[in-house]
Request: fold
Amino acid sequence: MSVETAGPSRAARQDAFFQALCFSAAMVLMATLAGLLIALVIGGWPALAHFGPKFFISAAWDPVAEDYGAAGPIVGTLVTAGLAMVMALPLAVGIAVFLVEFCPSVLAKYVSMAVELLAGIPSIVYGMWGLFVLAPWFALHVQLPLFYVVDPDSFWGHLFEGIPNGANIFTAAMILAIMVLPYIATVLRELLLSVPTHVREAAYGMGCTPYEVVSKIMLPYIRRSAIGAVMLGLGRALGETMAVTFIIGNSHEFPRSLFASGSTIASTIANEFAEASSDLHVSALLALGLVLFVITFAALVGARLLIGREKA
Amino acid sequence: MAFNRHLFDRHARRKLVNYGFVGLTMAATAVAVIALLLILWSLVANGLGGISLHIFTMDQPPPEMPGGLRNAILGSLEMCAIGMVMAVVIGILAGTWLAEYGEGSKLAEVVRFLNDVLLSAPSILIGLFVYELLVRPLHGFSAGAGAVALAFVATPVVTRTTEDILRLQSNQLREAGMAMGAGKSYVIRAIIWRASRPGLVTGALLGFARISGETAPLLFTSLGNPDLSFALTQPMGALPTTIYQFALSAFDDWRALAWVGALLIAITVLAANIIGRALARGSHQS
Reply:
């Protein structure tokens, strides 16, 4: 008798215990994000309090004089990520459309695997490749010829100003573009596949060419979610660290041309944090981290809201 | 007649535009495939020649001395292994909660949303967080802090895959278990988890692929260590941090070692990715 009553209650206790265990694991995830935010706010507060709003406007970054202004890295982050999106988006659309509409099914498996592998390559490998392969090539075949052709006092001359070593904002954006390309392309492809067959076939039935079907029917159909895909890529590009650190040249100057060396928030933190000498320096870097957190959080939240969950 | 020619011209133009468009999409795809091949090629060209037994038997050398990457490889393995154990336990439990208990609740929606954000959050911020959490209070860089940072990076990956996989299991399976008189937790552990095993392994492999190349979270947690060390309380070398240090150095032999390390990491990551996805594909079909 006692065994029978003990049986179900033990199972019930086990159920409750297991559910609590799963629940606490889920809460650990929430606590991680909350802790991340709290740690950055607490850590960055001394610098923010010390410099006030000047922290975001000033481009001075001088560890010796203990004067820190984040404008250089912030603008560097936005410019590299923005440029990267400009380069990656047309390519991503092309890849997604090719895979959905034109690619022979034999080939599709391998092409999408290649795109997935591109996403799997670690950031540091991109960085090495950028530094040792892309940068020298870029310096020799793009920067030097432009150097001879373009009048240095013209608009283009100012735009292309910089030491011809290939380590600059533009090449950093190129690397970022390759890195975020697979993320955007994969989401866009899922979105294109989600266009109802009858919509697509109705357009074909009217005699539209594939180009017209894609550009006038399918892309407008997914427009809203596609913006989400772009923001997802943007979120990645904004916070990308190692690849950028290798190739951007790491100068804290406010970027004045496309081929100038610069820095991003993430590259500044990666470069200086372990060696930061003073408390104010550490705090300034944590405040930078907070800025990065806010920017990427906004981009990622925007992306999720626009895409919806299933396709991301 | 003129009308017909006009029609023909228009048709020809539309066809031409279409061919141009198809060509452009092919070119875009070619750019991605070529970029992948170029990167893989430079890894092989620069790294393959340097692979020898010494890489695995000798520790990282001072400049211009012979040496290998043993301390970095073992350090990476140790921190990834510990990080993965934490990530798999938390990730599978959290994913199970989302799929089996949370269901449509508001809280589950929030957790799911934050997990997705965490999934794409910059990993360098995880490094800063763990620095504030473990390194600063304990007054020192340590391998343990590095492992925790890696766990934070991998957990969202495991959670996400676990939830997706568990949702694929049919409710009949759950009902059959319940009908036999088993409690909910027993059904989940003995039936649902077992049926989802290949998918759960995929989640773990994808998480591993993600962290084995991660550098940013280790820079100010485990820091790096030129000597072989297994102690969790001490700084520890890892392949990514060693590559970072060597690649940016002025010494040719350090750079050569960096290429070897990059090749090793790329092989590991790509293999984990391919095996993980193959397993996932297999389990979807069955």
Q: What stands out?
A: Residues 53-307 of chain A form a domain with the MetI-like fold fold (CATH 1.10.3720.10).
